[in-house]
Design goal:
single chain, alpha+beta, Butyryl-Coa Dehydrogenase, subunit A, domain 1, Butyryl-CoA Dehydrogenase, subunit A, domain 2, Butyryl-CoA Dehydrogenase, subunit A, domain 3, 3 domains, 54% helix, binds flavin-adenine dinucleotide
């Protein structure tokens, strides 16, 4: 995509700023310099966007919400969402590279012992790349039991197992891992250079969307780690993972909004220039109605994502809003990308146009980071809890 021509240039005027103008100015400059020119290449070659992520780290964007005492900026999740939205407008692969860093930070910040916080958290401001490894070949949505095992030793823990489908694993320097102990699923911190840790490009490593390098298998063979590399409470790993996902899903919605905006802007830009029947495609009412529907849906999803971020910043319960935000935004992104192809006709289908990438990325994000069905289960659970509380109150 050309960096100095529309739609990125005028996109900001169409979609209202959700954070302060100066922050957005700097952020958009960074996206224009470090992400936009490389987006197609990252997707085509399926490579981890190391240069973009390291540049974002130098600018403070990868440690934005970390408290200053840990080398972060102490900024709001609203600003964090703006980073994800703008980066993903150019490249959703960069967006998901940022999210696996945020997931590791969140888990460590909220649950790790002080010694591990001191050891790891300051590294994020220096550009530490991390993965969040829950999934295994036999355990995807359901992670209540796992084949990866952790056994207590004299000096700490010994890990054995294999994790699959791990985003950012092509470049990760450290991993947050879920493994089962005799008490239940627990969370561990493991580094790439540790003896017994390796990655392998399994048969399913290459995905059609969200291509930030192959989603490698992570292999753990008698990996010895100290006691303080267990994060949080033994047996409470699923609860901790869900809390972490509540945080990351809130801003994950912004990744889908970035994709949707890029697809919408690109389609409108094309329709305004493409001529048919003595006018432009944009002048056909049928096409205007497509765009009107899409803009309404993107606005609604975007409002929900930023409302979820506001709730997160206000330390409110976000289980409902974070799931709603990712569910709606990912659905809207897929619909927008699909309609953008239609509006652009044959050009929309070409490999030269970015719409195929938008569609592939948008669809993949209806599964990664919590599938739409699991998000609906979470929202429904919230509803059921609410009704049973109402019934209890009525009986009291
Ligand atoms: C691009 C990409 C990146 C990923 N990155 C990571 C990563 O970094 N770390 C990681 O750990 N994992 C990662 N994953 C794996 C991802 O988290 C899982 O794919 C996801 O949790 C779904 O698991 P599954 O694919 O095994 O589907 P399954 O659990 O086998 O489910 C199959 C289908 O059934 C539905 N389903 C399952 N349970 C229920 C239920 N109770 N009610 C209704 N429907 C249900 C699912 O939604 C899905 O549609 C990634 C996946 C993709 C596609």
């Amino acid at each position: 995509m050309d960096t100095d021509t529309p739609p990125y240039q005028w996109s900001r005027a169409l979609w209202a700023d959700r954070v302060d103008a100066r922050f957005l100015d700097g952020l958009r400059d960074a996206v224009r310099e470090h992400v936009l020119p490389f987006a197609d290449e990252i997707d085509r070659d399926d490579v981890y966007p190391t240069r973009a992520i390291k540049a974002f780290a130098r600018l403070g964007y990868t440690s934005l919400t970390l408290p200053e005492e840990w080398g972060g900026q102490g900024a709001s999740y609203t600003k964090c969402a703006a980073v994800f939205e703008e980066a993903s407008y150019a490249s959703a692969a960069v967006g998901i590279s940022l999210i696996t860093i945020l997931q590791a930070q969140t888990m460590i910040l909220h649950f790790a012992p002080e010694s591990l916080k001191q050891y790891v958290l300051p590294k994020f401001a220096q550009g530490l790349i991390t993965s969040y490894a829950l999934t295994e070949a036999n355990h995807g949505s359901d992670i209540r039991s796992l084949d990866t095992k952790a056994a207590r030793t004299e000096n700490g823990w010994r890990l054995n197992g294999r994790k699959s489908f791990i985003t950012s694993s092509a470049a990760a320097e450290a991993y947050i891992i879920l493994a089962e102990t005799p008490v239940g699923v627990s969370v561990f911190y493991v580094e790439h250079g540790m003896p017994g840790v390796s990655t392998e490009e399994g048969a399913n490593a290459s995905t059609f969307g969200l291509r930030n390098g192959p989603h490698m298998d992570l292999i753990l063979e008698n990996v010895e780690i100290p006691f303080d590399h267990m994060i949080g409470t033994e047996g409470k790993g699923v609860r901790q993972a869900v809390t972490t996902l509540d945080y990351s899903r809130t801003v994950a919605g912004a990744i889908s909004i970035g994709i949707a905006r890029a697809a919408f802007d690109g389609a409108m830009h094309f329709a305004a220039r493409r001529r048919a029947f003595d006018t432009t495609v944009l002048q056909f009412q049928g096409i205007q109605w497509y765009l009107a529907d899409l803009m309404t849906e993107i606005d609604a999803a975007r409002l929900l994502v930023y409302e979820a971020c506001r709730a997160l910043d206000a330390h409110e319960d976000i289980a409902r809003f974070s799931s709603e935000a990712k569910l709606l935004a990912s659905r809207v992104a897929t619909r927008t990308a699909e309609q953008a192809v239609q509006i652009c006709g044959a050009y929309g289908v070409t490999m030269n146009a970015p719409f195929g990438r938008y569609l592939r990325d948008a669809k993949a994000y209806e599964i990664a980071g919590g599938s739409s069905e699991i998000l609906k289960n979470t929202i429904a659970k919230h509803l059921l809890r609410f009704m049973s509380a109402q019934q209890e109150a009525n009986h009291a």
